[in-house]
C-alpha cells in the first residue's frame, strides 16, 4: 500500500489491501460495485480502526470540493472528502458560517461527521446536527441522496461509515459572525466544580484544559460570539482564574489567535490552523467519554481520584459540552453531555491498561465514547449505552445486505449484524 498505510497518529497500520483514489462520484460507484469489501478513508485522524477494511479503502481526496452555497435554503453542499478547513474559509469569504467546528480543521467533512465529531457549547449540537442531506454510494454502486424528509437521516448522519461512501454532504449555514477567545489560568478545581454549569455557560463555546492531578484547571478557554459592533469588556478574573495574555507563547503557525483579539469565526472556532500541525503533531493518542450533564461534576471528581494514575500518561484533558440531539449513534443522543477528552502521551500499553480502569470508574454515569478515539468497551456495553443501536444494525443490513461496508471495528463494537 501507499504512504497512507497508517493513521495520522501512526498508532494504527490499516490492514486494507489497497487505497484507491477515484476522481469522480461515477468512479466511486464503479469501485464500490466491483469490490466485495470497501470503506471510505477520510484524512486518517481517527485513533481507532473504524475506517479499516479487509478489502479496499476509498479516499475521496481527489474529488473536486465543488462547494455550493445556497443562500435561499441557507445550506452549503460540499464533497465528502473535503476538509473542514477548506469549507470554512470558503464560507467566510462569502459571509456565511457553520454553527461550530472541531478543534482541528484538517479533518474531512464526511469522516468527521460520520464519527460524531463536535466542538463545544451548551447550545451547540455535534457537527452532524447541521447535516441537511448526504449523497452516498450504496453497496450496489447506486448514488442515493438522503435528506431531512427521510427517517433514515438520523442514522446516516452519524453513520460510522457503515451505509456507504458519502460523496457529498449538505450542511446548514448561518451569517458569518465574529468570535473573541479569552484564556483564564489556574482556576481552582473546587471553584470550577462548584459552579460547573455556570463555567460551561460563560461563553458560546467553552473548553477546560486540565490535568486531574493538579489542584487547578490549567486554562479555561472562552470563545465568545460577538454581536455586531459590540465588544463586551474582558474580565480580569473568572471563577478564580486569572486572564492570561498568551500571545507571547502562541505558536502562530499552529494555533489560532487567542489573547482576546476578535476575529472571524473561521479563525477562532477551531483551536488549530489548517496550515499547521494540530495538537501534539501526532505524537499522541486520544480518548473521549461523554456523560449526561447531571453527572458531570461527579464524573470529574472520580477522575480526580485517579489523577496520579492518569497524569504520567496524560498530555492534557479537554472538557467541553454538547447539546442533546436525535442522531441514533451520537454520544449526545437525547442527552446534553459533558465531553471529557484525554490527549495521551504516546504510551500505547499504559493507555490500553488505563482505559478499562477509567471506564470502570465512570461506569455509574453510563458514559458513551467517541467512535474515532480509543476505548475499551465491547458490544454489550455499547448496546446498553446507545438505545438506537439495534435499529442502526437493522437499517445497516437493509442498505448493505452483504456486509460490504462492515468491518472488524463494527463487529467488535456492535456485535454480529
Ligand atoms: C488532533 C486531533 C484533534 C481532534 N479533535 C477533535 C475534536 O475537537 N472533536 C471531536 O469530536 N473529535 C476530534 N478528533 C477526532 C476526529 O474528529 C475524528 O476521528 C474524525 O473521524 C476524523 O475524521 P477523518 O476525516 O480523519 O476520518 P477517518 O479517521 O479517515 O475515518 C473515520 C471514519 O469515517 C469514515 N469515512 C471517512 N470518509 C467517509 C466518507 N466519505 N463516507 C463514509 N464514511 C467515511 C471512515 O470509513 C471511518 O469509519 C480529533 C482528532 C485528532 C487527531
Protein model, in words:
This protein has 417 residues and is α+β, with helices and mostly antiparallel strands. The chain folds into 3 domains: 3-59, Uridine Diphospho-n-acetylenolpyruvylglucosamine Reductase, domain 2 (2-Layer Sandwich), CATH 3.30.43.10; 68-176, Uridine Diphospho-n-acetylenolpyruvylglucosamine Reductase, domain 3 (2-Layer Sandwich), CATH 3.30.465.10; 180-369, Alpha-Beta Plaits (2-Layer Sandwich). It is 23% helix and 25% strand. Helix 10 crosses helix 12. The longest helix has 15 residues, at 348-362. The structure holds flavin-adenine dinucleotide.
Secondary structure elements and their pairing?
Layout: E1 18-20, H1 25-34, E2 38-41, E3 56-59, E4 68-70, E5 75-79, H2 84-93, E6 96-97, H3 109-114, E7 131-137, E8 143-147, H4 153-156, E9 165-172, E10 174-175, E11 178-188, H5 189-194, H6 196-200, E12 205-210, E13 216-226, E14 237-238, E15 241-243, E16 263-264, E17 285-292, H7 296-305, H8 307-310, E18 314-322, E19 337-344, H9 348-362, E20 368-369, H10 379-385, H11 389-399, H12 408-414
Parallel strand pairs: 1-3, 2-3
Antiparallel strand pairs: 4-5, 5-9, 6-10, 7-8, 7-9, 11-13, 11-15, 11-16, 12-13, 12-18, 14-15, 17-19, 17-20, 18-19
Bound molecules: flavin-adenine dinucleotide (FAD).
The site of flavin-adenine dinucleotide has 35 residues, from β2, α3 and β9.
Amino acid at each position: 500500500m501507499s504512504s497512507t498505510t497508517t493513521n495520522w497518529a501512526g498508532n494504527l497500520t490499516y490492514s486494507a489491501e489497497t487505497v484507491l483514489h477515484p476522481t469522480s462520484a461515477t468512479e466511486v460507484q464503479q469501485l464500490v460495485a466491483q469490490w466485495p469489501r470497501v470503506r471510505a478513508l477520510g484524512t486518517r485522524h481517527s485513533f481507532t480502526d473504524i475506517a479499516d477494511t479487509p478489502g479496499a479503502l476509498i479516499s475521496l481526496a481527489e474529488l473536486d470540493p465543488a462547494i455550493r452555497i445556497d443562500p435561499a435554503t441557507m445550506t452549503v453542499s460540499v464533497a465528502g472528502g473535503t476538509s473542514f478547513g477548506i469549507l470554512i474559509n470558503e464560507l467566510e469569504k462569502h459571509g456565511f458560517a457553520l454553527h461550530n467546528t472541531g478543534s482541528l480543521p484538517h479533518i474531512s467533512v464526511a469522516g468527521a461527521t460520520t464519527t460524531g465529531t463536535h466542538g463545544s457549547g451548551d447550545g451547540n449540537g455535534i457537527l452532524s446536527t447541521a447535516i441537511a442531506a448526504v449523497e452516498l454510494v450504496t453497496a450496489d454502486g447506486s448514488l442515493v441522496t438522503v435528506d431531512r424528509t427521510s427517517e433514515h437521516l438520523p442514522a446516516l448522519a452519524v453513520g460510522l461509515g457503515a451505509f456507504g461512501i458519502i460523496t457529498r454532504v449538505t450542511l446548514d449555514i448561518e451569517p458569518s459572525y465574529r468570535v473573541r477567545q479569552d484564556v483564564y489560568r489556574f482556576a481552582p478545581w473546587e471553584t470550577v466544580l462548584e459552579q460547573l454549569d455556570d463555567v460551561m455557560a460563560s461563553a458560546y463555546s467553552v473548553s477546560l484544559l486540565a490535568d486531574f492531578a493538579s489542584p487547578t484547571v490549567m486554562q479555561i478557554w472562552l470563545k465568545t460570539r460577538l454581536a455586531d459592533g459590540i465588544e463586551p469588556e474582558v474580565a480580569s478574573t473568572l471563577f478564580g482564574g486569572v486572564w492570561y495574555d498568551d500571545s507571547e507563547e502562541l505558536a502562530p503557525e499552529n494555533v489560532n489567535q487567542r489573547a482576546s483579539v476578535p476575529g472571524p469565526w473561521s479563525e477562532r472556532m477551531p483551536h488549530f490552523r489548517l496550515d499547521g500541525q494540530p495538537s501534539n503533531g501526532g505524537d499522541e493518542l486520544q480518548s473521549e467519554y461523554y456523560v449526561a450533564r447531571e453527572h458531570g461534576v461527579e464524573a470529574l471528581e472520580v477522575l480526580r481520584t485517579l489523577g496520579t494514575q492518569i497524569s504520567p500518561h496524560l498530555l492534557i484533558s479537554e472538557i467541553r459540552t454538547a447539546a442533546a440531539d436525535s442522531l441514533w449513534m451520537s454520544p449526545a443522543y437525547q442527552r446534553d453531555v459533558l465531553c471529557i477528552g484525554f490527549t495521551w502521551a504516546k504510551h500505547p500499553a499504559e493507555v490500553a491498561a488505563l482505559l478499562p480502569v477509567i471506564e470502570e470508574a465512570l461506569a455509574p454515569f453510563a458514559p458513551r465514547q467517541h467512535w474515532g478515539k480509543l476505548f475499551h468497551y465491547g458490544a454489550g456495553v455499547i448496546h446498553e449505552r446507545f438505545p438506537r443501536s439495534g435499529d442502526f444494525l437493522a437499517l445497516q443490513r437493509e442498505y448493505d445486505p452483504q456486509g460490504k461496508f462492515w468491518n472488524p471495528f463494527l463487529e467488535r463494537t456492535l456485535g454480529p449484524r
